[in-house]
Amino acid sequence: MKLDNIYKEEKKSTYAKLSEIIITMASKPSGLIGLTILVFHIILAFISPYIAPHDFKAIDPTLMLQAPSAEYWFGTDDLGRDVFTRTILGGRTALTITFFGSLIALLWGGLLGIFCGLVGGKIDDVVMRIVDAFLSIPWILAMLLIVSLLGTSTEVLIPALGFFYGKGIVRVARAATHDVIAKDFIVSARARGHSNFAIIWNEIIPNVRDAILVEGAMRWSWMLLGFSSLSFLGFGVSPPTPDWGLMISNARGLMSFAYWAVIAPIVGLSSLIIGINLTADAFAKALGIDRSTKAPV
Amino acid sequence: MLFLIIKRILLGFITLFIVSIITFVGTEILPGDACTTYLERQAFGEQLEACYRRLGLNVPAYERYVSWALNAIQGDFGYSLSGEMPIKEVLGPRIKNSLVLASAAIFIGIPIALILGIITALWRDKLPDVAISTVTIFAMTIPEFISATLLILIIAIWLEWLPGIVIVPTDVSFLELLPNIILPVVAIAMIMTAHMARMVRSSVIQVMASEYVQMAILKGVPYWKMVFKHVLPNALLPAINVVALTIAWLLGGVVVTEVVFNYPGLGRLVIESISNRDLPTVQALAIILASIYVSINLLADLLTLMLNPRLKTLQIRK
């Protein structure tokens, strides 16, 4: 009975902590703007298939490159498709792929980093050298190679992005683990005879979680940038799918007379990236983590 | 001190060695080899055999790796599959073109970044800081291809001031080339400057809050004398490393910018060789780009080491 109470109290305090963090984030203008944009995009991603006024893949040669009108709010593209429909659906693709990609990056990067930090010694040295080597290969080269050889399906893109954006998290998780590992509670856990696994789960993860989550949030915006760059270069999702990077690269050639087809996806993508960025910054500040001096690697 | 420098250089070489293994194994374990990916559907019988013989793919992988690595150290990366010429010759002009672009961006970017960073730090949370910081956040978060596309749309198409894509061959005289590369240089410099300005800002803010600066203020040192004598030297030192990382990170972004402006540098070669499935060239590019990354970082580390007296004594005591 007593144990039950403690458990409930802890659960309640996590909720309290979460709402406290969100309130702190929203108390500054930049955080409030970021959160508003992000929430708007997430809601739009959920409801866009139901509110889209036209079919995103309906090609109509008679409607080619029409200027914005009451029927086609953002005009039409070179195949006569509705730009508004494709723009609001584009957020779905980008958010889904990068969200799950970041999740994978967080999981493998975080766990490997904690493991290396805890074990140390030879294994740590070898793993960190390999991580360094991966960091020094430009991400775009590696991503392009994988995608061009394995194909551009979502099942390839999500793990590939997750893998390549996770290697930076390894370092952060490792450094955070080094910070807590010398503390007394780890020493006493060892003295109690707990296994490495129990120490990681009960002692280290709760203490490094904040640092890793902040890093993951930041990676999310970089991954979105990377993913849309891939799409822009023609190595992202395949054509009929509404995707911002793809829409911009398609409409770019014709932008001297049909600028609306390129402006709409630009606004969509830029606002989402800025939204995630501001939110991640505010999140870091709310948790008291300073990452302003970190390089974007 | 010397020991530390040697150790740092050795680490760089080890990293490059692992990179070479990764690229080699990577191209090895992914489905298809250089010949089947390049020849695609014609990959059978006599043609495939000939290709294997020509690239020496009929010997075991580790032997190929050793001979490839030995040649690569001497600057010989073998033959490009699509161009049918030595990769060394393909790379030469591309490296030169990319260097022109990158160095122009760095020469413009670093001074502007320093000035903006210092201004935003000294007027922290006042109007100049809020205005400049807002612009830098936009410049650094928006993808390269978007800022490049917007530059073309506004400057080249609407205002018709400069050509939007690079159409001249790059061996023309500098004055002829200049109007063609202004837009790509601005596109790259913009992002780089934004990143660096933000780092300089936080570095200066940190130093301004330190005890010796507080002491100098209390002692009555004139404000600007204090800024130039006590704050800047200490604030810019940690920025060197971060600036190096930013430059190296831009290697990826330059690929996209070069494609947007149709500029024949290393970045476009990455896209071309991957679209042509020219694996030998891709391997060479991976090694070269990784070497650039490693040497920029190495240089930054050594520079920090040499400029920082505290680090020197610390290492000797050890």
Summarize the structure.
The complex is a heterodimer of chains A (297) and B (318). Chain A has helices at residues 2-26, 29-51, 83-119, 121-136, 139-150, 154-181, 184-191, 196-232, 244-252, 260-286.
Q: What is the alpha-carbon Rg of chain A in Å?
A: 22 Å
Largest interface: A-B, 48 and 59 residues
The level of helicity of chain A is: over 70%
Largest sheet of chain A: none
Strand content of chain B: under 5%
Radius of gyration of chain B: 24 Å
Span between termini of chain B: 10 Å
Task: Give a structural overview.
The complex is a heterodimer of chains A (297) and B (318). The longest helix of chain A is centred in the middle third of the chain and has 37 residues, at 83-119. Mean pLDDT of chain A is 79; it is low at 293-297. Chain A has 297 residues and is mainly alpha-helical. Chain A has helices at 2-26, 29-51, 83-119, 121-136, 139-150, 154-181, 184-191, 196-232, 244-252, 260-286. With 318 residues, chain B is mainly α. Chain B is 80% helix and 0% strand. Chain B contains 13 helices and no strands. Chain B is globular, with a radius of gyration of 24 Å. The chains are: A mainly alpha (297), B mainly alpha (318).
Note the topology:
The complex is a heterodimer of chains A (297) and B (318).
Chain A lengths: L1 H25 L2 H23 L31 H37 L1 H16 L2 H12 L3 H28 L2 H8 L4 H37 L11 H9 L7 H27 L11
Helix pairs in contact in A: 1-10, 2-3, 2-10, 3-4, 3-6, 3-8, 3-10, 4-6, 5-6, 6-8, 7-8, 8-9, 8-10, 9-10
Chain B lengths: L1 H28 L4 H6 L5 H11 L5 H13 L13 H36 L4 H15 L2 H15 L15 H35 L2 H9 L3 H38 L5 H10 L3 H29 L1 H9 L1
